[in-house]
Amino acid sequence: MRKTLLLIALLAIPPAARSAPAHVHGAGHLDVAIDKGQITIALELPLDAAVGFERAPKNDKEKAALVAADKALKDAAALFMPTPAANCTLQSVKLDMPQFAGGEHADIDASYVFRCAAAAELKGIETTIFKQFKRLYRLETQRSGPNGQGAARLTPKHPVVSW
Predict the structure, then answer these.
(1) Which residue blocks in the chain are alpha helix, DSSP H?
(2) Closest CA relative to residue 21, chosen from 2, 38, 46
(3) What are the E-state strand segments in the chain?
(4) Tens of pLDDT along the chain (163 residues)?
(5) Against a cut of 0.85, is the pTM above it?
(6) Angle, alpha carbons 72-110-41 (nearest 5°)
(7) How far is CA 163 from the centre of its chain?
């Protein structure tokens, strides 16, 4: 119980505020916590992996790319699919897109919360994020839940966190 509460507290801290590994284009981070039928997902993604640049947009095409990325990341039910038998529904989405106040790297931070009616049936979460963002080639994933903790690397060929 204490470990679960600690992980939930850590997930509540925006990824940018935690000491994070080096910013790598094409690679993001995904943290998943499962506690009493609730799934909390924290995503950190280099802006370059989503739109192809990490600066203020220079033209209408780049502005449209930012809008499309924002829309795709807010559609959590299409991005993350928990085991269907668990009967999970999306509860909330929080998305923090870069504001281009300076700096040479920009990350997107997002958090998602799902509630599962049949939590015992939850065996994993599949993601379509690699289909949405072709420049993304891996997600380093950590998970914690009633079946323990673990880490995995998700890729376009292996887009499922399972336990």
Answers:
(1) 2-12, 47-51, 60-74, 76-79, 129-132
(2) 46
(3) 27-35, 38-46, 80-82, 88-96, 107-116, 124-127, 138-145, 148-154, 160-162
(4) 444 444 454 454 444 444 445 556 689 999 999 999 999 999 999 999 999 998 889 999 999 999 999 999 999 999 999 999 999 999 999 999 987 766 667 899 999 999 999 999 999 999 999 999 999 999 999 999 988 999 999 999 999 999 8
(5) no
(6) 105
(7) 17
